[in-house]
Structures are given as C-alpha cells and as structure tokens.
Amino acid sequence: MSNLKLSTGAIQRNDPGFEAAALSTLFNRIHPGRLPEVIVQPRTVAEVTAAIQRAQKSGLKVSVCSGGHSWSANHLREGSLLIDMSLFNTFAVDRSAMKATAGPGVGGSALLAELCKQGLFFPAGHCKGVCIGGYLLQGGFAWNGRKLGLACESVLGLDIVTADGRLVHASETENADLYWAARGAGGGFFGVVVQFHLRVYPRPRYCGMASLVFGLRHFEEVFNWAYEVGPQVPDAVEFQLLTSRRTLTVCGPGIEAVAPVFADTKAELEAATAFMRDSPIRKKAFFRMPYVPMSMNWMYRFAMTHYPSDHHWGVDNMWTRAHIDDLMPFLKGMTEELPPAPAHWLWLNWQPPVRRSNMAFSVEDKIYLALYGSWKSPADTARYQFWARDWMKKTAHLASGIQLADEGLHQRPARFLTDPNLQKMDAVRNERDPAGVFHEWHSRG
Ligand SMILES: Cc1cc2nc3c(=O)[nH]c(=O)nc-3n(C[C@H](O)[C@H](O)[C@H](O)COP(=O)(O)OP(=O)(O)OC[C@H]3O[C@@H](n4cnc5c(N)ncnc54)[C@H](O)[C@@H]3O)c2cc1C
Fold it and tell me: Which structural domains are found in the chain, ordered by start?
C-alpha cells in the first residue's frame, strides 16, 4: 500500500518533502522522471469530488492511485493532480449473502486473510501490498484465477466519482457502460472508484503447491514439456515456470516449475497434481516437492521472495499462442541476458476459456510471458532498465498483446484491448469524460 500519510490532506510541488511524498506512493524504486503538481489524500467521497473540482479549476488533469503497484508509475504524471485513495482501506464481509464491499486501498492479501478465517475466498493477486483499486480495474490475475476467472469478473458493482464530480453506482443494470469499462480499463479508467462490491466464494478445501526445480541444462526439455502438457493441465492449477539466476532462494540458475493447486475434493486434487507426479522429466529435477498443503499466508510468503519492495524494476510482458519452436530462441536469449536475482521471467500456462463476461478486458492467450528486470543499486539502472522491454520488442511478432497488470506502456506501446473494445472504451470515455479530466494510459498499441 502507499506509504503516504498527509496530515493536511494535500501537498503541492513547491512544498518541502513533495518529491519524497510522491515517490512514497510507488512500489517501484525507479524515479519515473514525472511528478504531479499536487497530491490529495481524501478520506471521504466529498473530498474526492472536491479534488476533481480543484484540478479542473487549476487546469490540471487527474491521476489516481490506490496501492501504487503500477510498475510504470502510471499515476505519476506531469501537469496533474494525484488523488491517492490509499485511505479508502476498509472492507466488510456479508457471509450469508456471499458478498463483500471493499475500498480501493484494501490490500488483496488482507481481504483474503480475513475471508479465509471465515472459510471464504476471493481471487486476490499473488503479492502482499497490491491493492484492489488498480488490480481489479486491469483484470486481476489471481490465486485460483483459472477456475474463478479474472478477479474483475467477481466485481458485482462499483461506486464511482465521475469526471463531473457525481457519485454513481455502476453494475450490470445501472450505468452499465461504466461497469463494462471498469473491468479492463486499468490505468486508463476515467473515474475514481471509491468502493467495490464483490462476490466471494467458499474457500477451496485443498490449497497448496507442488514444485519441481531444474538446472538450466534441461532448458529445452522443460519448456517443451510445459508447452505440450499445458492444454491438459486442469484449471485448478496455476502452472508456471519461473526462470532466474537463483532458484529456491539459495541455489544457482534454473527453472522452478510451480503448481499452486486449489481443489474442492480429494479426487480433484489428485487429478490436478497428476501432471507433475507423472512428468516424463521429473527425475531430471534437482528438487522435487510433491503437493504440500499450505495456508494462503505461506503461499504469499513464497511469492514475495521474488518481489522485494526495495528494488528498481523494469517490467514488460506478452500473451502468445506461438509454437514452442518459434519461441525457444527468444526464451534462451532472454535467459542468457537475465539480470541477477531477484530478476526473473515467468511462463504462465493460462489457456483461457472460450467465453468471458461482457467487459472491456479482452486480450489474453494460451501462454503468458512476463519479464521482471530488477536491481537494487541505482548505479545498475542503465545496465538493466531495458532488458524486459528490449526482449519484448524482439519477440513482438509472436505476441497477441499484453496484460495491463505488468504493463510497460511508458516505454513500449502495445495492444491491450481488442480493436472493437478500444473503440467502445473511447466512446464511453467521450460520453463520461468529454473534457478529458482524467489521464489515459501512457500509450496504446
Ligand atoms: C509486486 C507486484 C505483484 C503483482 N502481482 C499481481 C498479481 O498477482 N496479479 C495481477 O493481476 N497483478 C499483479 N500485479 C500488478 C498489479 O495488479 C497492478 O499494478 C495494479 O494496478 C496494482 O494496483 P494498485 O492499486 O496497487 O496500483 P496503483 O499503481 O495505485 O494503480 C494502478 C492504476 O490503476 C488506476 N487506479 C488505481 N486505483 C484507482 C481508483 N481507486 N480509481 C480509479 N483508478 C484507479 C490508476 O490509473 C493507477 O495508475 C503486481 C504488481 C506488483 C508490483
């Protein structure tokens, strides 16, 4: 969550401590080279409305943040008034209705921890600190996301302050255009979400993980296996391969094949983990962990080892359905040039369903590749900053688009909505924000 705590509720660019305050809203330690003119930290809906009016009177555009986990620092823009929603951080669970309401500044992991205590579940993201504000607007790739869908498909409604300062409710039946846009617009949304209305689920009976870890000499065999087995992997499993120069936090370079599993019955669990148990290359792994039940807290601890909060990050990604033979030279190349850990790149076996909800989110594919360049010292910025972007540029002919979760649109335009959905998004924006009060994405594909 954002570290910012403004005692006065607002701070201006020429105030002492302004730059530090702006950067403290950001997970990524890279200085984006862009700063807003004013930061406002509202506690009430009336203060959100007042902030939008203040921006308009001052000739500033509005940018918004909740948890500040945008890798591209989407909310830090020149000539803008930043509305920091991190204090909208409370939630309430209605167990009998299987619903919850939550502010955008709520951490997904905090919400999930409380739900798990009550035997419930929500498809929250994989790291602590990511807030539901930005996460749900861009789609939301979740624990158990292959089974429960994108997290934004569990959004039943939103309370939004629009460009004209009005508080409206958006759902399938009210302000349906905003409801459509808010599920996929990500950092290009043209309103301030002050509350989400969510559907919650029973906690899966079996939550845990299986893992196989391989040295890089098995690179081709591992990725050929993942490619072949991918379409058959049950949707109770988020099968992924994580390549880095440091496996298991203490071992050398390699590939961690990880299978988080969420199953409701013993039979489902057995079926879900069979592809790891019966893998033809299992014996080549130097570390083999059969399915081990884990609390969500342990799942988060595992994920967080790869995403320390005191680092600089250069991130980019692509969806692909390319053949493994076409991908392989690029996978090898990006691995050869991989910066030291915790930098890594991820192969996620996504295999999306044929149909999704009617919403803006519209670009996904069989395999997701995400490159997380990372370094601690500012002295290494020039060396590692563009590793992810440059490899995604070289591989762009094999991509069907990108995911907004890991966007690097400030350094490389890419396709994140289908053409009809981008056109529809523009039409809704023109209707809802005709004067262009809100910032858009950094760029479009
Ligand atoms: C360590 C790490 C792990 C991650 N893991 C996952 C993951 O497992 N799954 C996944 O899907 N994504 C993941 N992400 C990506 C993350 O979901 C997105 O960056 C998301 O935008 C973060 O939400 P936020 O509120 O924390 O970020 P912010 O930077 O605050 O928000 C991003 C953008 O969303 C918009 N926005 C935010 N809040 C509001 C609001 N209240 N009203 C209107 N617009 C708003 C703004 O345009 C803002 O610039 C991860 C990111 C990091 C850094």
Answer: 10-84 (3.30.43.10), 91-203 (3.30.465.10), 206-406 (3.40.462.20)
Measured in Å, residue 307 CA sits from the centre of ligand 1 at 14
Distance 238 CA to ligand 1 centre (A): 20
209 within 8 A of 260, measured Cβ to Cβ = yes
**Does 106 contact ligand 1 (Cβ within 6 A)?**
no
- Among 105, 75, 100, 110, which residue's Cα sits nearest to residue 87? 105
Report pLDDT digits (tens) over 63-119: 999 999 999 999 999 999 999 999 999 999 999 999 999 999 999 999 999 999 999
Residue with structure tokens 């203060």?
Answer: 47
Residue 112 to residue 130: CA distance in whole angstroms: 12
Q: What is the mean pLDDT of the chain?
A: 97
CA 423 to ligand 1 centroid distance, Å: 23
Question: Using a 6 Å cutoff on CB, does residue 344 contact ligand 1?
Answer: no
Type of residue at 322: A
Residue nearest to atom 34 of ligand 1 (CA): 134
CA of 105 to the centre of ligand 1 (A): 10
Residue 219 near residue 345 (C-beta atoms within 8 A): no
Ligand 1, residue 138: give the atom nearest the CA: 21
The residue-averaged pLDDT of 420-438 equals 98
pLDDT exceeds cutoff 80 at 1: no
What does the pLDDT look like over 330-366, one tens digit per residue?
A: 999 999 999 999 999 999 999 999 899 999 999 999 9
User: For ligand 1, atom 29, which residue shows the shortest CA distance?
Assistant: 68
Q: With cut-offs at 50, 70 and 90, classify the pLDDT of residue 445.
A: confident
Mean pLDDT (whole number) for 215-243: 98
